[in-house]
Design brief:
Elements: H1 4-27, H2 32-49, H3 54-70, H4 80-99, H5 105-114, H6 122-139, H7 147-168, H8 170-183, H9 193-214, H10 218-241, H11 244-271
Length: 272
């Protein structure tokens, strides 16, 4: 199989990101991966601009972003999604300014941001698995709502997401992070983790084989396969959990509103 390394790389990500995606959905911070990735990419560009190793500059900017995000506790009055979206836009704007100062910076930065799953080798897969294991060890335990706990969570998240985006691209990482967890979402709560992991693994296998047989772009093919499987699974779960009482709830609410309206009118007339 030509795309064997692509299959193994996507399976490594399929084991890690769906579980983290459930934590991300719980915390309502879906844009955290894009924000961290853009901050790291901008830090890399900054390092190239000031003749500092890009890896160290990216690590420094990512650590700064982690500390900033950890300062927002669960009871913060600010909407976290909006804040992280602002971080993403700010980092992207700084990156665009830096690109204008670098003769070949645009190609390198775009390659870092969108990745090259076809170019990944076995050493890259090993590094991806190593960082993913360390990241899961930091991010998965249920941390208390404390600054140190949030530092561990965001650090673990960045250790997985940033190398993964550099290796396989934004599309695949965001899809694996959100779609499996969202497809098994039940009544405002996460579904079983094994279901999300199974969906991600099936999408990796089916999507990679389809890309190999049909000569299609592997990243886009896996994402589309994951989207189709997630929609079908989510629809089945939704209708299986939709009981007869919930199905009749809208009609009952309408009847209550119709009955309450005349009483309100009569009450107002009696008052007059």
């Amino acid at each position: 199989m030509i795309l064997l390394t692509v299959l193994v790389a996507t399976l490594v990500i399929a084991v890690c990101l769906p579980v983290l995606g459930q934590r991300v959905l719980e915390r309502r911070i879906v844009f955290v991966d894009l924000a961290l990735a853009q901050v790291a990419a901008t830090g890399y560009a900054l390092g190239m601009a000031i003749d500092v190793p890009g890896v160290f500059a990216a690590a420094a900017t990512t650590a700064t972003a982690v500390i900033f995000m950890a300062m927002m506790d669960e009871e913060t009055p600010l909407p976290k999604e909006a804040v992280m979206g602002g971080v993403y836009v700010f980092a992207a704007s700084v990156g665009m300014v830096l690109l204008s100062l670098l003769p070949y910076g645009e190609g390198q930065l775009m390659g870092l941001l969108f990745g090259s799953v076809l170019g990944i080798d076995w050493q890259g897969i090993g590094e991806l698995a190593l960082f993913s294991g360390i990241g899961l060890a930091l991010a998965l335990p249920n941390h208390a709502n404390s600054f140190s706990g949030r530092i561990r969570f965001y650090t673990g998240l960045s250790l997985i997401i940033v190398p993964a985006i550099y290796a396989i691209g934004v599309l695949l990482v965001f899809a694996y992070l959100v779609m499996p967890a969202l497809s098994v979402w039940r009544r405002g709560h996460n579904g079983p983790a094994w279901e999300a992991l199974t969906l991600a693994a099936i999408a990796s296998i089916v999507g990679t084989f389809a890309a190999d047989l049909l000569d299609l772009p592997p990243s886009a093919t896996v994402v589309l396969t994951l989207a189709v499987i997630a929609v079908i699974t989510g629809t089945i779960i939704h209708f299986n959990n939709l009981g007869p009482e919930e199905a009749e709830a809208p009609d009952n609410e309408k009847e209550e509103k119709v009955e309450e309206k005349p009483e309100g009118i009569l009450g107002s007339e009696q008052t007059k």
